[in-house]
Amino acid sequence: MEKLLIKGGNNLKGKISCSGAKNAALPIIAASILSDEKIVLKNLPYLQDITTMFELLGSMGAEISLDENMNFTINTSDLKEIEARYELVKTMRASILVLGPLLAKYGEAKIALPGGCAIGSRPVNYHLDSLKKLGVNISLKNGYIEAKVNKLKGADIVFDGITVTGTENLMMAASMAEGVTTLQNVAKEPEIKDLAEFLNKMGAKIDGAGTDLIKITGVKKLQGAEFNIPADRIEAGTYLVAAVVTQGEILIENIDPSRLMQVIEKLKETGACIEYDKNSISVFMRESIPKPVDITTAPFPNFPTDMQAQFSVINAISSGIAKVNETVFENRFMHVLELNRMGCDISVKGNQAIIKGVNSLYGAEVMATDLRASASLIIAGLCAEGETIVDRIYHIDRGYERIEEKLNYLGAEITRLPS
Predict the structure, then answer these.
(1) Per-residue pLDDT averaged across 80-103, rounded?
(2) Where are the domains of the chain?
(3) Do domains 3-18+232-417 and 22-228 have the same CATH topology?
(4) How would residue 345 be classed by pLDDT, with cut points 50, 70 and 90?
(5) What pLDDT, in 10s, does the model give residues 256-298?
(6) Is 383 a catalytic residue?
């Protein structure tokens, strides 16, 4: 396995641009199944999860091409398979996003139960129970979801728990169902609005994305469309944190700050100076030691669980004690043991971590356990004394495009070591 070697102690300074958002791109790629016409996607990030989703569609018979401007064209007019095989699905939970489109377009689907980061339970029953209300017959056999329907029928659906991919799957399925579907207790993440905007460009009739109630009036056919994938808010937040812990000063372009306001406010609490306009965010760390910040993760528009591990590093070198409450995923403190190997003082009880600030961190060999844990270990390595080696970096390649190149451009010293 490849590793990252990080030499700590450099201040990050300079300007970088955000890549397209993985969490927006994956459902939009899945939604291409709904049309017999060509879909053109711009600003797709070069990530392992994107490659896996393309491999999945390709295994079904989709035609995918890349032009000289790095725009992808997807043609799913002649799919020959309605099965998402385990060897592709096992590495990425977002594979389940093809379930709704396949049912809407073909009336059947066979999807392997998904895998991905082992950060906690993300039950697919929210998807399946809701699809049943649209008239879908579902059975679980030999590790696969087998689903069939003669014709999807609109319904009023209230999710038992907030689920991003569940909301997206039902939006895609209901876009071609007969009648009107309403979705309540839905996710409100910006990526939900991105998917709705894309589907509406295809001819869908979706109102209320980003609010408590989404209304979908089914249509018989969806057309081709062209869409620009918005910037990745979590990538931007990660680089802002890296600048704070290294006493840096950076400008991030191609990012909408309204998607990151909770993170921005918490960064201000650490003593960082944050400025932004509609397309960029800058940070300057004016304090020599960051102030501790208490965090409670919750669905958007609250503090994102995908930024919890990164903020653990800020608190680890802060001037006091911070409490971090994780309410979204029960296993999302797996980075703690590895951070403690670098000198952090973090204790976990249940869904709460108590972080006591220390004077300095020290380089060590550490192992990534999931995508955002990988980011936290890299950030810790940037501000640690000596050298840090982060193993299992295939996790980071799932969600950050060329992370070592971007950080090195800002003044870091990171080398990718061959396996």
Answers:
(1) 88
(2) 3-18+232-417, 22-228
(3) yes
(4) very high
(5) 999 999 999 999 999 999 999 999 999 999 888 999 999 999 9
(6) no
d(CA 391, CA 393): 6
Q: How far apart are CA 245 and CA 358, in angstroms?
A: 13
Number of Cβ within 10 Å of residue 104's Cβ equals 23
**Active-site residue identified among 117, 273, 344, 383:** 117
Q: How confident is the model at residue 89 (pLDDT cuts 50, 70, 90)?
A: confident
Q: Tell me the C-alpha to C-alpha distance, in Å, between residue 158 and each of 129, 132, 166.
A: 10, 12, 11
pTM above 0.90, yes or no: yes
Domain 22-228 classified CATH 3.30.70.120?
Answer: no
CA–CA separation, 390 and 407 (whole Å): 15
Q: How many helices (H) and strands (E) does the chain have?
A: 14, 24
Question: Could you give the C-alpha distances from 29 to 52, 57, 131, 220, in angstroms and in order?
Answer: 11, 9, 20, 20
- Residue 33 token pair: 């199944």
- 301 CB burial (10 A radius; 0-12, 13-18, 19+): middle
How far from the centroid of its chain's Cα atoms is residue 144's Cα? 24
CA distance 159 to 184: 6
- The answer to whether 113 and 138 are in contact (CB under 8 A) is no
Instruction: Tell me the C-alpha distance between 249 and 11, whole Å.
Output: 8
User: Residue 39's beta-bridge partner residues?
Assistant: 74, 225
Q: Per residue in 357-368, pLDDT tens? A: 999 999 999 999
- Is 319:325 a contact under the CB 8 Å cutoff? no
What does 179-194 look like in DSSP terms, one character per residue?
SEEEEES----HHHHH
- Residue type present at position 151: K
Pick the CATH number of 3-18+232-417 from 3.40.50.2300, 1.20.1090.10, 3.40.50.720, 3.65.10.10: 3.65.10.10
| Secondary-structure percent of the chain, ordered helix, strand, coil, rounded to 5 | 35, 30, 40
pLDDT tens for each residue of 181-198 = 999 999 999 999 999 999
- The answer to whether residues 50 and 17 touch, using CB atoms and an 8 Å cutoff, is no
DSSP assignment string, 102-168: HHHHHSEEEEEPP----SS---THHHHHHHHHTT-EEEEETTEEEEE-SS-B--EEE-SS--HHHHH
